[in-house]
Amino acid sequence: QVVADMREKRYAQQGIGSSYLFRVDHDTIIDATKCGNLARFINHCCTPNCYAKVITIEAQKKIVIYSKQPIGVNEEITYDYKFPIEDTKIPCLCRTESCRGTLN
């Protein structure tokens, strides 16, 4: 967590507007900000059509995105980021009927 916090601060200082950090478990966070596949751009939604799951393959943890329903051509792929509750709120822009209003 300490390294992830330092990276977020450094990215902000460098003018990088978004960071792509994914918590795998208590001790591991994957940083796809500067290097990663297109899945790093999957947006949050309060009523997502996918979910993320961490699985272990040959002693390596992997993030897998599973569909919850059929996804049409040109339909955006989304999942719930499940950010922890914090005092400083991040606004949610998903605009679904059951939008919680914030990501955290």
TrEMBL record:
Kindly list the places in or outside the cell where this protein is found, as annotated in its UniProt entry. Nucleus
Domain annotation SET: ranges: 1-82
**Which Gene Ontology cellular-component terms appear in the entry?**
Set1C/COMPASS complex
Where do the Post-SET domain residues begin and end?
88-104
According to its UniProt entry, the protein's GO biological process terms are: methylation
Where does the UniProt annotation place the signal sequence?
none
Q: Which Pfam families match?
A: SET (PF00856)
Give the protein name, as stated in the record.
SET1A methyltransferase
Give the record's keywords alphabetically. Chromatin regulator, Methyltransferase, Nucleus, S-adenosyl-L-methionine, Transferase
The answer to keyword S-adenosyl-L-methionine applying to this record is yes
Q: Which organism is it from?
A: Loxia leucoptera
* UniProt GO molecular function: histone H3K4 methyltransferase activity
Q: Which PANTHER family match?
A: HISTONE-LYSINE N-METHYLTRANSFERASE SETD1, HISTONE-LYSINE N-METHYLTRANSFERASE SETD1A
What would be the name of the gene that encodes this protein? Setd1a
Domain of life, per UniProt, equals Eukaryota
